[in-house]
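Hi support team,

I've been running sequence recovery on a batch of backbones for a student project. Most finish fine, but this one hangs at about 90% for roughly twenty minutes before it completes. I'm not sure whether the input is malformed or the queue is just slow. I've pasted the C-alpha cells below so you can try to reproduce it. Let me know if you need the job ID as well.

Thanks,
M.K.
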C-alpha cells in the first residue's frame, strides 16, 4: 500500500479507477495554518486521513495512548454519509459533491478508530458507506463505483473485520470480497504464479504487482493493517490452484518469498526508480508473510529494513514509521529498538504529544516504581555491606528511564 500520492496519481485514478494512499508526504509544502493535531508536516490534501489513521493505529499497537486532539481531528474528517475525506480544512462546513472521499482512507480510519474504541457511531456509519460502495464483483475500487482493485478490497476487508463484521458475508449480487480477490489472483502457470494483480488490464490481463500481492495476502486472510504472526503457512510447496482465499494467500506468500529471496527487499515499480529499494512495500510484504506464517523470509526482510530503512522513514513521514512498526509487530520485533532507531519515539515526534496517562494508570506506574525503589534499597544495603566486608567497590547504576513514545 505504498503508491506515492500526488496530483499525477490522482489523475491516474480518474483514468484507471484506483490507486493506493501514500506512506510518504510528497505533496507541496503545507499552509502554516495546518492544525497542530495532524501528524506530518506535508500537505494533507490527498493523504491526511491515511497517515493520521496509520499513526494512531501504530501508537495503539505499541501501547502508546494517542493524543485526544489527534483522534478528534480524525473523526472530524468524516462526512455525513459516513465516508472520510482526506482533508477537510473547515470541518464546520458539510461535505458536498465536490468533496474528495475514498474507500482506502475511510477503511483506514475505521481500523484505527475501532482499535482505539469508543467510536462505534463513527465506524458504524463508515462501514455502512463502504457496504454501499461495494461493487457487483464483491470488491472495491479506490473511489465509490471505481473498478475493483486488490489494494482497496483488502484494506476494506481489514476495516470490516476490525468493526466486527464477517467479510465473507458482506456481499453484493451474491459476491463477497474474497470472490473479487480470487479473480485478481494470477494462476499457477507462468513466472508470476500466485501473485495478485492490482487491476485487470484493458483486455482483462493480469499483471503481477508485488504491492498488490502483499495486500492480497493479508486481505485473503481476513487481516488488517495490524496483524500478528500466523501459523498457516508452509510456502515451500509453491503455487497450487486456489479454490478459496486461504490458498490464494499461500500462493501470494510464495510469490513474495521468491521476490524477496535474492536481495531481501522489493524494488520500486515507479518510472525512473529502477533497481531502487521499495521500503514501504517491503514492510507490507513482511506483514503479509508473517500473517501467512512464512516467518523465515519475513524475518530476513525485517532485518534488511532494520539496517536500511531509517533514512527513508525520516524523510517520508508518519505513515512510513507506522508501516515499520506494523512490520516489527507482525514479526515480534521491538519497534523501540529497530536497528538502533526508536520508531515509536520518532513517530510521536511527527505529531501531537501523546495523551497523559489516566489516573489509574499513573497510580499503577507509581506503585511499580515504589516497589522497584524498595528493591533497589535492599540491594544497595547489601552492596554497602559487601564493600565494607571485603573492600571491593560496586558500581550501582541508576535504573534506565522508560522511553516515552
Amino acid at each position: 500500500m505504498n503508491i506515492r500520492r500526488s496530483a499525477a496519481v490522482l489523475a491516474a485514478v480518474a483514468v484507471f479507477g484506483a490507486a493506493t494512499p501514500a506512506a510518504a508526504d510528497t505533496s507541496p509544502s503545507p499552509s502554516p495554518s495546518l492544525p497542530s493535531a495532524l501528524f506530518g508536516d506535508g500537505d494533507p490534501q490527498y493523504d491526511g486521513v491515511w497517515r493520521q489513521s496509520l499513526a494512531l493505529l501504530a501508537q495503539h499497537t505499541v501501547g502508546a495512548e494517542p493524543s485526544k486532539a489527534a483522534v478528534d481531528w480524525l473523526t472530524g474528517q468524516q462526512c455525513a454519509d459516513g465516508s472520510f475525506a482526506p482533508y477537510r480544512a473547515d470541518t464546520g462546513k458539510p461535505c458536498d459533491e465536490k468533496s474528495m472521499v475514498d474507500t482506502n482512507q475511510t477503511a483506514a480510519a475505521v481500523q484505527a478508530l475501532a482499535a482505539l474504541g469508543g467510536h462505534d457511531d463513527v465506524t458504524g456509519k463508515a462501514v455502512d458507506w463502504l457496504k454501499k460502495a461495494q461493487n457487483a464483483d464483491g470488491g472495491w475500487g479506490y473511489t465509490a463505483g471505481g473498478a475493483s482493485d486488490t489494494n482497496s478490497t483488502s484494506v476494506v476487508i481489514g476495516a470490516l473485520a476490525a468493526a466486527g463484521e464477517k467479510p465473507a458475508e458482506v456481499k453484493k449480487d451474491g459476491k463477497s470480497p474474497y470472490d473479487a480477490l480470487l479473480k485478481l489472483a494470477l494462476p499457477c502457470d507462468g513466472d508470476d504464479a500466485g501473485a495478485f494483480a492490482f487491476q485487470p488490464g484493458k483486455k482483462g490481463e493480469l499483471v503481477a504487482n508485488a504491492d498488490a500481492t502483499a495486500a492480497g495476502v493479508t486481505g485473503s486472510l481476513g487481516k488488517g493493517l495490524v496483524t500478528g504472526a500466523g501459523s498457516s503457512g508452509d510456502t515451500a510447496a509453491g503455487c497450487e490452484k486456489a479454490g478459496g482465499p486461504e490458498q490464494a494467500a499461500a500462493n501470494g506468500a510464495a510469490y513474495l518469498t521468491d521476490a524477496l529471496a535474492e536481495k531481501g527487499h522489493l524494488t520500486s515499480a515507479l518510472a525512473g526508480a529502477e533497481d531502487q529499494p521499495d521500503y514501504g512495500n517491503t514492510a507490507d510484504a513482511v506483514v503479509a508473510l508473517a500473517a501467512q506464517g512464512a516467518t523465515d523470509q519475513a524475518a530476513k526482510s525485517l532485518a534488511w529494513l532494520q539496517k536500511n530503512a531509517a533514512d527513508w522513514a525520516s524523510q517520508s513521514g508518519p505513515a512510513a514509521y507506522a508501516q515499520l512498526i506494523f512490520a516489527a509487530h507482525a514479526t515480534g520485533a521491538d519497534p523501540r529498538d529497530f536497528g538502533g532507531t526508536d520508531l515509536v519515539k520518532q513517530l510521536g515526534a511527527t505529531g501531537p504529544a501523546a495523551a497523559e496517562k489516566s489516573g489509574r494508570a499513573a497510580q499503577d506506574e507509581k506503585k511499580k516504581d515504589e516497589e522497584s525503589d524498595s528493591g533497589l534499597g535492599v540491594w544497595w544495603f547489601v552492596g554497602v555491606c559487601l564493600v565494607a566486608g571485603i573492600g571491593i567497590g560496586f558500581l550501582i547504576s541508576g535504573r534506565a528511564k522508560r522511553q516515552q513514545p
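--
Follow-up from support: It reproduced on our side and the slowdown came from queue contention, not your input. The chain has a mean pLDDT of 84. No action needed from you.
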